[in-house]
Task: inverse folding
């Protein structure tokens, strides 16, 4: 259990929803619950045939643009600077790589709404909950809290 003087480390995983009001609200709410350090992880995106042929061979330009837009929004919501990382094109692998290289106490995954979310179709929240870290899922229209 963390001491009250040690901020919780919160991994925020998002791409297209990284700068949305729903995610900013979730970060603001979490920051109000107690001291926290936030890190935004943006998986690189494989497009077109790269998704099938070689998803590892993707450019990180789009992910960098997401970080540029989202970090100021999330930092304002957190009340403290949010760190940014670019991860593997496969979201679950990006999360796994990140939690294997750093320690996190919580994960927030932000997705598009259920009708259009590839991450929800891939069952990313359920798979990420297998890491045993408390997990919050945020979509622009809803927030579902589950524990790992």
Result:
């Amino acid at each position: 259990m963390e001491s009250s003087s040690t901020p919780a480390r919160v991994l925020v995983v998002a791409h297209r929803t990284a700068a949305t009001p729903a995610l900013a609200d979730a970060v603001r709410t979490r920051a109000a619950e107690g001291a926290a350090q936030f890190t935004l992880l943006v998986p690189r995106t494989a497009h077109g045939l790269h998704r099938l042929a070689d998803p590892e061979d993707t450019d990180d330009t789009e992910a960098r643009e997401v970080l540029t837009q989202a970090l100021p929004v999330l930092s304002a919501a957190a009340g403290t600077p949010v760190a940014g990382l670019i991860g593997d094109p496969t979201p679950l692998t990006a999360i796994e790589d990140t939690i294997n290289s750093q320690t996190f106490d919580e994960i927030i995954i932000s997705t598009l709404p259920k009708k259009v979310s590839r991450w929800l179709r891939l069952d990313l929240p359920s798979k990420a909950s297998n890491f045993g870290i408390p997990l919050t899922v945020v979509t622009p229209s809803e927030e579902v809290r589950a524990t790992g």
